[in-house]
Specification:
The complex is a heterodimer of chains A (about 260) and B (about 290). With about 260 residues, chain A is of the alpha/beta class. Chain A has a domain of about 170 residues: 3-Layer(aba) Sandwich (Rossmann fold). Chain A contains eight helices and ten strands. In chain A, the strands form two sheets. In chain A, strands 6-7-8-3-9-10 form a six-stranded mixed β-sheet, sandwiched between helices. In chain A, a hairpin with a 3-residue loop joins β1 and β2. The radius of gyration of chain A is 18 Å and the shape is globular. The longest helix of chain B has about 40 residues. Chain B is built from twelve helices and no strands. The chains are: A alpha/beta (about 260), B mainly alpha (about 290). At the A-B interface, β6, α3, α5 and α6 of A face α1, α9 and α10 of B.
């Protein structure tokens, strides 16, 4: 077994330059280095247009970095794979599949027998609190419920790392608070290494063990790292919570 | 844990119900009633039709509505050129089914292949773009020269007419798929084959079906055009016969029956789609 001190994910000096039409170069990320420990909840915080989603897609293997490397358990990431589960901002559920059909897709692609993958899917549907909605189609669900399916789908494939790309960006404020609470609960029940991308400071403090903030405006650069040593479950109105929030807000305002 | 109970209740709160309000009866509300206005509209239409016939504004060029009904009934019993109305309807329907089957079984796979493989696209697209804007009816003379005046020439016109929307919709159906849906399959460990089977086909299905629907209505137009030019059977033939015999009731009877069948076949396809795609229809390219 690997020792617990060895980082799960190592990103070394990652930069990304997109070549757009007309050979225009867009510099998105510059010199990003991140280490994530096993079962750590790391939040990547940054305003819009800071390249944070691109960073997550590079770790997912959906984009290749222009320079630098990503390693997972010491092996270099060269493409997407089932060892990482991705939750999309715009849900990306298959409208032609039911909730159960969506959640069991991962095990199904890996050729796991029907009975077994049904059990796995059902377990994660229950975990995200969607029991009795298995037969529903995505268009019959609200935004919050859709993202629960997205989370269950990623979990059902039993990945070692969960990557969440602004998962609650499309939800209203109240549902968002609730989903943050749910995410914390799910993570406490089924611990995974998590990389969570958000533009919301409160969300970052509520969920993260560690917050890595990126500078606004392209290219995205590392700005600061905050350790969040608050006991869970956290309260958005706690004094220490608010102090940290103030600290991060002040620091980001200097940059913007 | 209290968290689970809050989870259930908050999901319940997210489901909304609509409640219809009932209003008390009044004359104004009755006059504004949708069904009442429908009745007015239809009555006015038939009254105008009857009036035009009565005043002979169009001479012998028009038959009263009730005479058209009688004509339909007589055509069902008597025969025109050896066939009753049923026989002629079947003749038209048969041509459509054959033409439609040939066109869709070639155009749909070709469209999908063009969308998935850029080399196939590069070879087929220039020729297709050249033929695309040509109205199908422009082919009629060629069709008769090549295939004679029998069935093959009519089927050819239908194939040409329905080919374009079938191909275009299958092509666009695959092309307009949200690329992140493929990412989902890739992240879950799927292969390129899984991407096509799990995302490509099902996601393009509604668009392909919309193409088939458009094709079907075009097929009716094509079969009519072909029959008007040269035919010994079919609903178009009845219309032409009615014109040559100066029987406007036959002409209108043919038109009404044609409209009915075009509507009925489209309805069948619509219900077939609802049955085959129980999920909400999100893409439609009409």
């Amino acid at each position: 077994m690997k020792s617990n001190n060895q980082p799960k994910i190592v990103c070394q000096n990652i930069s990304k330059v997109f070549i757009q039409k007309g050979s225009q170069r867009v510099h998105v990320l510059e010199d990003i280095s991140v280490d994530v420990k096993p079962n750590e909840f790391v939040v990547i915080l940054g305003p819009g247009q800071s390249g944070k989603s691109t960073l997550l897609r590079i770790i997912a293997g959906l984009e290749t970095p222009t320079t630098g490397t990503v390693t997972l358990d010491g092996k270099e990431v060269s493409g997407p794979g089932a060892d990482r589960g991705l939750v999309f901002q715009s849900y990306m559920l298959f409208p032609w599949k039911t909730v159960l059909g969506n959640v069991e897709l991962g095990p199904r692609l890996r050729g796991i027998p029907k009975k077994e993958r049904r059990e796995v899917a059902q377990r994660y549907i229950n975990l995200v609190g969607l029991q009795k909605f298995e037969k529903h189609y995505p268009h019959q669900l609200s935004g919050g419920m859709k993202q629960r399916v997205g989370i269950a789908r990623a979990y059902a494939n039993n990945p070692e790392v969960m990557l969440l790309d602004e998962p609650f960006g499309q939800l209203d404020a109240q549902t968002r608070y609730f989903m943050e609470k749910e995410t914390a609960r799910i993570w406490e029940t089924e611990k995974r290494t998590v990389l969570f991308v958000t533009n919301n400071i409160e969300e970052a403090i509520y969920l993260g063990d560690r917050i890595i903030s990126l500078q606004g405006k392209l290219p995205g650069r590392m700005h600061a790292t905050y350790e969040v040593n608050l006991p869970r479950p956290r309260e958005q109105t706690e004094m220490k919570f608010l102090e940290l929030r103030q600290k991060i807000t002040d620091a980001s305002e200097l940059v913007l | 844990m209290s968290t689970t109970t809050t989870a259930a209740s908050s999901i319940a709160n997210e489901i909304q119900q609509e409640v219809m309000e009932r209003k008390p009866f009044s004359i104004v509300a009755f006059l504004k009633n949708r069904w009442f206005l429908y009745a007015i509209s239809l009555t006015a239409f038939f009254a105008l039709w009857k009036y035009v016939d009565y005043t002979r504004v169009l001479g012998n060029g028009i038959a009263a509505p009730e005479k058209v009904v009688v004509a339909i009934y007589r055509l069902m019993i008597d025969t025109v050129a050896g066939k009753s109305l049923w026989g002629h309807t079947w003749a038209s329907l048969n041509r459509i089914l054959i033409g439609f089957a040939i066109a869709s079984s070639i155009a749909v796979p070709l469209g999908i292949l063009m969308a998935l493989n850029r080399y196939v696209n590069a070879v087929v697209k220039p020729v297709f773009d050249l033929i695309k804007p040509m109205p199908p009816f422009a082919w009629i003379s060629c069709a008769i020269l090549w295939f004679g005046i029998d069935e093959p020439s009519k089927i050819f016109i239908i194939v040409v007419g329905t080919f374009v929307p079938c191909l275009l919709n299958s092509y666009m159906g695959i092309r307009l798929i949200e690329p992140q849906l493929y990412d989902v399959v890739r992240m879950l460990g799927g292969s390129r084959r899984d991407e096509i089977l799990q995302v490509g086909f099902p996601a393009a299905f509604p668009a392909i079906f919309a193409g088939l629907q458009i094709s079907l209505s075009i097929a009716w137009t094509c079969v009519l055009s072909a029959e008007l030019v040269s035919a010994r059977s079919g609903l178009g033939f009845i219309i032409i016969q009615g014109m040559q015999l100066a029987r406007p009731d036959f002409v209108l009877a043919g038109m009404v029956v044609l409209a009915f069948w075009a509507w009925a076949t489209t309805l069948i396809v619509t219900y077939l789609e609802k049955f085959l795609c129980p999920w909400k229809r999100e893409t439609s390219l009409a």
